[in-house]
Amino acid sequence: MAMTPDAPEAADSRADESLRLSGITKRFGSLVANSGIDLELRPGEIHCLLGENGAGKSTLMNILYGLLQPDEGQIVVDGVPRVFTGPRNAIDAGIGMVHQHFMLVDVFTVAENMILGREPGTLGLINLRQARRRVTELSQQYGLSVDPDARIENLPVGIQQRVEILKALANDARYLIFDEPTAVLTPQEIEELMRVMRSLRDEGKGVIFITHKLREVRAIADRITVIRRGAVAGVAGPGESEASLAEKMVGHQVSLTVSKQQHEAGDVRLRLSGVTAVAANGSVAVDDLDLEVRGGEILCIAGVQGNGQSELAAALIGTYPLRSGTIMVDGRTVDRFTTKERIDAGLGYVPEDRQHDGFVGSYSVAENLVLNSYHKPPYAQGLALRGGVIRSNARDRVAEFDIRTTSIDTEVAALSGGNQQKVVLARELSRELAVLVASQPTRGVDVGAIEFLHKRLVAERDRGTAVLIISTELDEVAALADRVAVMFRGRIVGIVGPHTSREVLGLMMAGASVEEAMASADVTTEETEGVVT
To answer: Which CDD domains does the UniProt entry name for this protein (predicted)?
Structure first.
């Protein structure tokens, strides 16, 4: 049973104000997600929890918030041992959580969302006036301007996140958990969020900031705990270098820069004209989009997730229907081609969700490496597969792409995320391509694998392939792009050079044109390195 704040042990709690996790262990079958983790959060500090996707950060925080129960270990809040059987216990103990995927009801107003589960009122009646007043008070107190009567579905993601923060504060949270909070924000919204977190810290609240982004950690952390493979790999201060933090994250030295020569763009190999794609509910995901990508260049599409990038990638490979427009690869119109015919026309594809679209988990490494060409020579002779050739190809690709596997017969589902992604990329780059479309190519991949994947993408560019990369990671865009196209609500709002400032890119990601963004940021055309539109 959870111990309550008025337990006898709480009498002297202020003498031991902190939130402590001691020896937290959590197993899922044979998988140890957390192993003996110790973590302390003090009032008036921002403690960053840094680690790769899958390192165990979110599992640990879900335990702290009562969504999961630990197999071993203890949670102590202000000197009082606690057992959380659900989020209500954590909330009552002064813990609030801002989830990566917002826990809001779209059709409800801000005020209605604020009181879900804690409806104030008498005789069973909800007092919405009181709820609106609470929203207004908290908005003014923390500088988080929100209309209490606005419907969630009509708010941009940055404002929705403000509502999540206000919900936690409305419950009088003294310790706040921010779980990957910058994933869906523009650079300007990220700066605003960091201002809010600093304000909370200065007021005496403790903040846990979960992220895998080194730049953000060094910008805001008072202390840093690095998690690797479910265990604490080290504790650091904000002055520690990105290279040192990255080494703690992956266990070995990695390069954080991409070495590439000035590109020499050739002829247009991918041309999109008036491409429009409509979702099943009738909403326009891609809106009359024009774009060209030349051989020997990497064009990155930047933007906040949910602005049509995923639908564009799927439309290019033929798994999302077009309403209108033309797609051309090396001068051939392919928009009426099947996916198989587009692959045969020289289109390579690295999907956003590799587990769903990129491989067959129950197939072996060798089988997955020929999924798009097993029916053709040299892997097939007539209707018969040539097993020896398929296995020889697998051994070559495993060596070339440094795929860490015990055997080419291992099921791909058993590999790490980085090695799964290497299998997908190895398959696509093992044939002559006109165009490579890579959507979120390093999502869920450790820093070491990112370094390798980036090198291979640049090498493909240097072979003369037109490379189109869709990424929400601005560091990745800056590292790889020869040109950057910014997408907002299904349209390209402008194309700029790779060294364009984050401020300009952020304004464009919010819908500003190139000219408007440059004027607001007070930069010159030369600073954007080759504005196209």
So the answer is: ABC_Carb_Monos_I, ABC_Carb_Monos_II
Residue 523 clears pLDDT 80, i.e. is over it: no
What does the buried/exposed string (b/e) look like for 295-312 if buried means 16 or more CB atoms within 10 Å of the residue's CB?
bbbbbbbbbbeebbbbbb
Decide which of 3.30.1490.100, 3.60.10.10, 1.10.10.410, 3.40.50.300 is the CATH code for 8-94+174-250. Answer: 3.40.50.300
Q: Distance (Å, rounded) from C-alpha 3 to C-alpha 13?
A: 13
Structure tokens at 221: 């952390």
CATH number of 256-346+432-533: 3.40.50.300
Note the pLDDT of residue 60.
Answer: 93
- Residue 194: CA atoms inside 13 Å, Cβ hemisphere, count? 18
Domain boundaries, the chain: 8-94+174-250, 256-346+432-533, 361-430
Query: Is the backbone peptide bond immediately before 70 cis, with ω within 30 degrees of 0?
Result: no
501: pLDDT strictly greater than 60: yes
| Percent of residues in the chain assigned helix, strand, coil, to nearest 5 | 35, 25, 40
Phi/psi of residue 170, nearest 5 degrees: -65, -25
Identify the residue whose tokens are 């921002």.
Answer: 46
Nearest by Cα to 48 from 243, 228, 221, 306: 221
Lowest-pLDDT range, 106-120, 339-353, 374-388, 487-501? Answer: 106-120
Q: What are the tens digits of pLDDT across the range 466-495? A: 999 999 888 899 999 999 999 999 999 999
Contact residues for 423 (Cβ-Cβ < 8 A; gap 6+)? 359, 365, 368, 369, 401, 403, 412, 415
**Does the fold of domain 256-346+432-533 match that of domain 8-94+174-250?**
yes
Q: For residue range 378-398, what is the model confidence (pLDDT) as tens digits? A: 998 888 889 999 999 999 999
